[in-house]
Write a structure and sequence with these properties.
By secondary structure, the chain is an alpha/beta fold. The protein is 37% helix and 19% strand. The chain has 21 helices and 21 strands. The strands form four sheets. The protein has a nine-stranded mixed beta sheet, with helices on both faces. Strands 5-2-6-1-7-8-9 form a seven-stranded parallel beta sheet, sandwiched between helices. A three-stranded mixed beta sheet has the order 14-15-18. The chain binds glutamine. Glutamine (GLN) binds next to strand 17.
């Protein structure tokens, strides 16, 4: 006979005799970790990740340990093979996991490095289940969505809880309630909440309040139906966050409250915000953070002194948002110019750098497909700096090279990221080193001067999705260089990588003889990782993706250097401090 308070102990048995299947990881302490589930109704793109990370940040501020996890319904094992045009940028974690861009939101908001433990897809879950089945781990049972697949999901969540020792695990369920592919995640969360017992978890439903222009008033029906759908799945939301273009009226909140059994105080208005970094304040203002603590009966773990300090720091940061005394326009060249999500980390990095320098950074998106040496002056005449971001394939590559040439020859601040680093090497080889036929073998497989070629170590690994150099690596900095100055004279810095190609070491000497400085290298291999031009106001490229590690309170120095140089270019008469010095000043002040 199963006693209620003994439920978890008994369900951990994997046997053919019982209908329970809920494996529990070793060392799991029931009750230690609470769970906060965040899901969306009505439509996707509500900003579940933003909401969840902001709420998690507020709990972290209170001295609580938080661990986020995103559950993705798709069958891909990771996000590496996804088209950023459809799904937003592929975010790379330090351990090399290629994941959804929301993990970037969590890392930035929580100022925390995450790992593959924080990202689960249906592809991973099903692979695990099928492997277990082949190993005979299910002891003759027919393997079913419930309890086996849901059991695997619960195991992942509890594993994260046990490994992170978190006070609260924030579980974001991708997509929308009602999506077939997400249904088993919601079922798993229902089971987990039941097994963990009362006050062990809370459920936040994000919804959207429509405001058709023709009516001029907010309508709650779509939201009501979305919540109804959730309740039909056996989930009673504890909190409803109403996303909308403008503040949600009390009347609409009342309607939703009545309809959903959620007290009015827990139906909150979450209108659009100019900066995601203002959202924690919106959540805090309505007291939702303490409400969650109460729901989870975790108030006694709160450290108010910690919270006061952390919040004061955040308020200082918020004060700087919008209080700018300069302006600069950065041109970002890119293939996916129509979808801003594909460059989320770059946009964030520029925002962080701008806030730190008190500068309003405008982004001008530049489609390079039609750009040549001839029309580059026209296309780039109104920007104060350029970024050529990461990319794959040939489209627009020559246009990017033309932009880089223009930047190099006209003292226009330049930052090349990964592909942008490689394109800068090609441009320099062609136009300075006399290697007219220089190219990358990615663009021209049989080119005469393959200055950028596939990594020897990667050549051995076959199969798309599995042959990239991925994740965090140390970069050794060369003393006396601009990069070394920028990083406060550090011996080495850590950045994240995602590439197949690199500078062919046979050309290094020739490039250096032409005046290109490789200021960052891999410690143990001749892999060039940062380049710069000492006589240019700011010309830097990196094989890494520094945008992946820029944080609001710790802006990434390369972006700060670029924006500082752009401000200088805009106001040449003002005798502003050298951009590297300006960058160092704000970066060393940041925490
Ligand atoms: N396509 C280039 C490579 O594979 C650059 C990749 C990137 O920009 N992420 O090396």
């Amino acid at each position: 006979m199963v006693k209620d308070n003994d439920l978890l102990a008994s369900v951990s048995d994997v046997s053919t005799e019982s209908e329970f299947f809920s494996p529990v990881p070793p060392g799991y302490k029931k009750g230690k970790t609470r769970y906060c589930f965040v899901m969306g109704t009505v439509m996707s793109g509500l900003g579940k990740g933003i909401f969840s990370s902001c709420l998690a940040k507020l709990m972290q501020d209170k001295g609580l340990k938080v661990a986020p996890i995103k559950l993705e319904g798709y069958l891909n094992v990771d996000s590496g093979t996804l088209n950023p045009f459809r799904h937003g940028e592929v975010f790379v974690l330090d351990d090399g996991m290629e994941c959804d861009m929301d993990l970037g939101t969590y890392e930035r908001m929580l100022d925390m490095d995450l790992s593959r433990a924080n990202f689960a897809t249906s592809g991973q879950i099903f692979s695990l289940v099928l492997n277990k089945e082949r190993h005979g781990d299910y002891l003759g049972r027919d393997v079913q969505m419930i309890p086996h697949v849901t059991g695997e999901v619960k195991l992942r969540l509890r594993q994260l809880a046990a490994d992170s020792d978190a006070d609260i695990v924030f579980v974001e369920i991708g997509g929308t309630v009602g999506d077939l592919e997400n249904a088993y995640f919601i079922e798993a969360m229902r089971e987990l909440a039941y097994e963990e017992g009362p006050n062990s978890s809370c459920c936040v439903a994000l919804t959207y309040i429509l405001e058709p222009k023709t009516l001029g008033e907010q309508k709650s029906k779509a939201a009501q139906l979305g919540i109804k759908q959730l309740m039909q799945l056996g989930i009673q939301p504890d909190i409803i966050a109403c996303r909308a273009a403008s503040p949600v009226t009390e009347k609409v909140r009342q309607k939703i409250s009545v309809y959903s059994n959620v007290p009015l105080g827990r139906v909150i208005s979450l209108p659009d915000s100019t900066s995601v970094y203002m959202i924690p304040a919106m959540i805090r203002e309505v007291g939702l953070d303490f409400e969650v603590a109460r729901l989870l009966k975790i108030d006694d773990r709160i450290n108010l002194r910690h919270e006061r300090k952390a919040w004061a720091k955040w308020c200082d940061f918020m004060d700087k948002i919008g209080s700018t005394d300069s302006e600069a326009t950065i041109g970002v060249t890119g293939k996916y110019t129509s979808v801003r999500d594909s460059y989320a980390s770059i946009i964030n990095s520029l925002e962080h750098a701008g806030i730190a320098l008190g500068c309003k950074v405008n982004i001008k998106w530049i489609d390079t497909t039609g750009i040549t040496d001839k029309n580059a002056p026209e296309e780039l005449g109104d920007v104060d700096g350029i970024i050529v971001p990461g990319g794959f394939g040939t489209r627009g590559a020559e246009g990017k090279i033309a932009c880089i040439r223009y930047a190099r020859e006209h003292d226009l601040p330049y930052l090349g990221l990964c592909f942008g680093f490689q394109m800068a090497v090609i441009e320099f080889s062609r136009n300075v080193c006399g290697l007219a036929k220089a190219n990358s073998t990615e663009i021209e497989p049989d080119c005469a001067e393959p200055v950028i070629d596939i990594l020897p170590e990667q050549k051995k690994i076959e199969g798309l999705g599995g042959n990239m150099r991925l994740g965090g690596r140390d970069i050794e900095l060369k003393a006396g260089t601009i990069a070394w100055e920028l990083f406060d004279k550090a011996k080495s810095v850590r950045m994240r990588f995602r590439h197949r190609y690199e500078v062919d070491p046979r050309y290094i000497e020739r490039l250096e003889a032409g005046g290109l400085v490789f200021s960052g290298k891999a410690p143990d291999q001749p892999i060039m990782q940062i380049l710069e031009l000492p006589l240019h106001p700011f010309f830097m490229g990196t094989q890494a993706h520094p945008c992946l590690t820029s944080r609001p309170l710790r802006p990434q120095p390369m972006f700060v250097g670029l924006v500082a140089a752009a401000i200088q270019r805009r106001r040449p008469s003002e005798n502003l401090p050298d951009c590297v010095k300006a960058a160092r000043k704000v970066c060393s002040h940041s925490t």
